Amino acid sequence: MTKGNHIHLTAICGMGMGAFAGLLKEAGYRVTGSDQNVYPPMSDKLRDMGIDLMSPYSPDNVNSNPDMVIVGNAIRKDNPEILAVMERNIPYMSFPEALNKYFLKDKKSLVVAGTHGKTTTSSMVAWILEKNKMSPGFLIGGILNDFGTSCQLGTGDYFVVEGDEYDTAFFDKVPKFMHYSPSSAIITNVEFDHGDIYRDINHIKSAFKNFIVLIPEEGYLIACNDFVHLKEILPTAKCKVETYGFAGGSDWTVEDLVIGETSSRFTALFRGERMGSFEILMPGRHNVANALGAIALLYRQGLSIEGIAAGLSTFTGVKRRQEIRGVINGITVIDDFAHHPTKVRETVSAIRSRYGAGKLWAIFEPRTNTSRRAFFQQDYISSFDDAQKTIVAGVFNLAQISEEDRFSPEKLVEDLNLRGRDAYYIPDSEDIISFVCGQAVSGDVILIMSNGGFDAIHERLITGLREVKIPA
Questions:
Q1: 248-267 burial, b for 16+ CB within 10 Å, e for fewer?
Q2: Fewest Cβ atoms nearer than 10 Å: which of 71, 314, 326, 351?
Q3: Chain centroid to CA 38: how far?
């Protein structure tokens, strides 16, 4: 495949696929794409890049006989466009395969994997490399505030990838991260998730074991020591292993930790030796752990502690990770991607620490394939302890989940109230907005957690708060 050839992407409006389309365009390929629902902001970004978008899926979308079709993992095997691709013998491959083929084979691939925390951690790694004039390539599942994008071709030796354990495509059921040829890696944690494709925690652990053995002997695995399931699989590694975290026995640890409203300061130690002082513009112990993992990985890539600290001190985060969407009449509206019970708990706790004086509202939409199912019905009960008011929305696309497998927001709210929490089940976003606008007062903080658009609730809530008289 040579530059200038035509590459067509299906499911192009997904975050990963849209970012990959941008990389291909930057690399000089002719890029087109299709999706069932072409929607902003990704549709606007793609059009700004000069990428032709087609909707809905149709055999006509590949009448131009592209040189290669990249198949997103949202595509089913009975998709009419893919059926046409196969009937016409048009070459096709998955997005992870293509990422390796076009961008990773001549680079040092730094892969950040884990159940949660991988977007922030991989973004930290990419930004520190950039600030140290190493021009990394990267493809990350979020928009980095400092770059204004989720991808970059880069001219340096490194390519940073957020490694997802979800399966690759309908014709390739291995986890995506198995395609990324890691030279070194971080694993932030291993917990149960993706209940639609993994049977149990042992199934998840087997996937991460298979990933670990991909790291060559001369490479490094940097693993968080705070999670028992991750610690149990570390003996699988052939490479050098260093652990980090707050748990005893970690190679990389912190002391002198001070978590403020808008930043965190700490000293990093390696096996008891003080390595240096750091500050990140983010509150929360989980963000300190993310930073510690990035420090350990990049130190082993030869970066100086001073250079790493300088990069971290200017890192401003990722959109939809504790992102302030607006402050209206003294009420702060925050957007976050949290959906796993552990991540919800960490996020609520971090926001509580940051805004100690005001009343914290936690609004949660069960939207992922796992959170819509009953796997975490009990685990969520303790996730909202630091919120003064909790609202649980209706399950997204309820009809897709059988009744016996379905997560119950009503039961969660009942359990939260029995726990002494002030919790409400409000299925519809319009009713949530009305409820909040009727009760919120100046000084309140409203944390909205969903991994999707949630009916554009953030903008609509901000509009609603502007229109009502808010008591002081």
A1: eebbbbbeeeebeeeebbbe
A2: 314
A3: 22
pLDDT, tens only, 224-261: 999 999 999 999 999 999 999 999 999 999 999 998 87
Type of residue at 106: D
The answer to whether the beta carbons of residues 285 and 260 sit under 8 Å apart is no
Residue appearing with tokens 């076009």 = 102
pLDDT, tens only, 70-111: 999 889 999 999 999 999 999 999 999 999 999 998 999 999
Rounded CA-CA distance 100/88 in Å is: 25
Task: Give just the sign of the alpha carbon dihedral 302, 307, 309, 315.
Answer: negative
**Distance in angstroms (rounded) separating the CA atoms of residues 66 and 292:** 44
Structure tokens that stand for 37 in this block:
């629902």
Beta bridge partners of 222: 186, 242
Q: Any bridge partners for residue 359, and if so which? A: none
In DSSP notation, 181-207 reads --SEEEE-------TTT--SHHHHHHH
The Cα 459–Cα 250 span in angstroms is: 43
Helices (H) and strands (E) in the chain, counts: 13, 23
Q: Which residue has the tokens 């509206």?
A: 333
